[in-house]
Amino acid sequence: MVNVRERKKNEDNLLNAVFWDYPRLTNPDALRRLIMTNPEKRRWVMKRFLERARVVDTWKFFNMSEIAENISELNLSPYASKKWNRMIEVYGTERK
Question: Which of 49, 66, 84, 86 is deepest in the core (most CB within 10 A)?
Answer without folding.
Answer: 49
